Amino acid sequence: MPSARAMRLTADREGLRRLAADELGLPTAPFWFVGSLGELEAVGAHAGYPLLVKPVAGPTGQRQSVVARREDIEPAWRRAVGDQSSARVLAETVVEVEFYVTLLAVRSEGPSGPAIEFCSPIGHRGSDGQVLESWQPQKMSAAATDAARSIAARIVKALGGRGVFGVELMVNGDEVYFADVTSRPADSAWVTLRSQRLSAFELQARTILGLPVDTMMVSPAAARVAGPADPHDPAALIGALSVPESDLRVSGSGFRALATAPEVTAARERAGQAAERLAAPAPRG
C-alpha cells in the first residue's frame, strides 16, 4: 500500500511541488507559494498573467481560478482559501499545453525488488475538479511517452510504497510537465474497467496483496459521466445499453457510461451516446 510519506505529500500541494521541482528536478510550470493576498498580488506583478491559482490542499481542480488580470486576483484568493482563517495558495504560470494526461504507474514487489510498470496514457477533460470524460489510449509522441514515464517513475519512487499512482502531466509536443499525483487510482481511471485486462482497481488490490500485475490494454475505450439519471427508468437503461460495446457503472458520484471500439474516437462517441441516452428524460404519454 502507499507509504505514509506518499499519503502525506499527495495531500499537500506545497510539499509535493517542493519534492518534484526542488529535490527531483522535474519539469513543472513556474510556481510560487504565497500566504496572503498581498503576496499573490506581488506574484502577479512580477510574473504577469494569466496565472493559475489553487489551494495548497484539496482535490485537483477544485477551488482553482485562472487570473487573467489584476482585478481577478482578490476573487481568486478568496475562492482558493475558502473559509480558512489562514491559508497558503499555489500560483503558477499558465503554460502552453496541447492536452493533459494521466499516467497510471503501478509499483509492486517483483522477484528482484520494487518494480514500476505503466498503463497506456489516459486522456481526460473535466470541470471544477471533476473528470467528465476519459479515454485510453491518449496518443503521444515516443519522446513524450518516454519523458512521461521518466517523470512518473521518479516521483513514484520518491513517494514510496506499493499501489497504483495517478501521475497527472501536461503535454505540449515532446515536452512534458509534472502537475500532480495521487496515491490511488485517479478519477480518470474508470476507463480501465473496459480498456485493460486488469482495471486500475484490480491492479491496486494485486499490489497490496503482493500478487502479479499486468498492465496490458486490450481495447481502446472511453468513459463519460452521465447527467442526472433515474435508475428506475428501464427505457433509459435500455437506450444506453443498446449502444454497441457499451456498459454502465454506478458509484457514489453517479453513473458512468463506458464503451469500447476499434479506435478511441469511436469509443468516445459511443460513451457519449450512452451517457446522453441514460440522462434523457423519458417521453410522457
Describe the structure.
- The protein is built from nine helices and 13 strands.
- With 285 residues, the protein is an alpha+beta fold.
- It folds into two domains: 30-93, ATP-grasp fold, A domain (Dna Ligase, domain 1), CATH 3.30.1490; 101-279, D-amino Acid Aminotransferase, Chain A, domain 1 (2-Layer Sandwich).
- Strands 5, 6, 7, 8, 9, 10, 11, 12 and 13 form a nine-stranded antiparallel beta sheet that branches.
List the helices and strands and how they pair.
Elements (H helix, E strand, L loop, with lengths): L3 H7 L2 H11 L7 E4 L2 H11 L3 E5 L9 E3 L5 H9 L7 E5 L5 E12 L2 E6 L3 E6 L2 E7 L5 H18 L3 E10 L2 E8 L9 H4 L4 H10 L11 E5 L8 H8 L4 E6 L2 E7 L3 H16 L6
Antiparallel strand pairs: 1-4, 2-3, 2-4, 5-6, 5-7, 5-9, 7-8, 8-11, 9-10, 11-13, 12-13
Give helix % range: 25-40%
Oligomer: single chain
CATH topological fold name of the largest domain: D-amino Acid Aminotransferase, Chain A, domain 1
Give the termini separation. 54 Å
Class by SSE composition: alpha+beta
CATH architecture type of the largest domain: 2-Layer Sandwich
Q: Please tell me the overall pLDDT.
A: 91
- Large-scale geometry: globular
* Topology pattern, helix = H, strand = E: HHEHEEHEEEEEHEEHHEHEEH
Q: Low-confidence parts lasting 5 or more residues at pLDDT below 50?
A: none
Q: In percent, how much strand structure appears in the residues?
A: 25-35%
Number of helices: 9
Task: Report on the biggest sheet.
Answer: 9 strands, antiparallel
Kindly provide the radius of gyration, computed on alpha-carbon positions and rounded to a whole number of angstroms: 20 Å
**Number of structural domains:** 2
Query: Can you tell me the CATH superfamily of the largest domain?
Result: ATP-grasp fold, B domain
